[in-house]
Sequence to fold (308 residues):
Amino acid sequence: MNGANVNKGRRRMGKWKYVKKNWQLYVIFLLPAVLLTFIFKYIPMGGVLIAFKDYNTFQGIMGSQWVGLKYFQRFISSPDFVKYLLNTLKLSAYGLAWGFPVPIILALILNRIRREGIKRKIQLLIYLPNFISVIVLCGMVKIFLSPVGPLNGLMGTTTDFMSNPDAFRSIYIASGIWQGAGWGSVLYTASLANSSQELTEAAIMDGANVFQQIWHVDLPAIRNIIVIQFILQAGNIMSIGFEKAYALQTDMNIPSSEIIATYVYKIGLLNGDYGFSTAVGLFNSVINVILLLAVNKIVSKLNDGQGI
Fold:
């Protein structure tokens, strides 16, 4: 045991000496990435001060009057606070519940296709929607679900699905699954391709059927990736981009489609209330961080201490 520790210590010392000797190489390769991260990620964080100030564009951030938690209190005490919060949580939670398993299922199915030609064609078809922009996708959805669209023509009806608040979440989630599930399966497909074929052959020799092979061989091979992806997606449950929700929003479905992100966009950019919109966005980010830490803690306890 002591010998192993000594060898590890020597290897660490050897690596450290190599880094010190070739530090110029590390600087050349790391400096651009560090600078870009600092410029575009850390410097903009100073903008959160706007959430605590009565921001005036002429006076700037530092010259504006300090108002403390005024905007946070205003948002939490507003009559629409609960509605926006619940709409955001429902849209994210339902999307996670329905959308998270789909890429895993697609990867497991693709892993069972042995003919490479057919497999590549199927992969091309399911990856393709990911390269359609969100705005184009929303336009396609509106055309498909319009009263004179293909779906109503197929059913012989003239229902305006986009004006129905009860249908908005289903439309949003289903279109998101169609667009992103194929691309989301890439990580799982790659992991399954590198899994042990000996275990699969041993399971077949033992008489395991397809479902037993998937349960006892395939799923354990991608278990860690599933856990990490779940933690990241559950932790970002409040991070819904406003683009798609706003593009699919109509005057009739606002009771279901108005989420925190669209509210921030309207208040901040359309109404020019920058301090209040920044406070709402910061509130959203804080909830995200809390959820990420909580989900990571829970999953770690259920997964033998393994989390992010």
Remarks:
- The radius of gyration is 25 Å.
- The mean pLDDT is 85.
- Residues 110 and 120 are 9 Å apart (CA to CA).
- The chain has 18 helices and two strands.
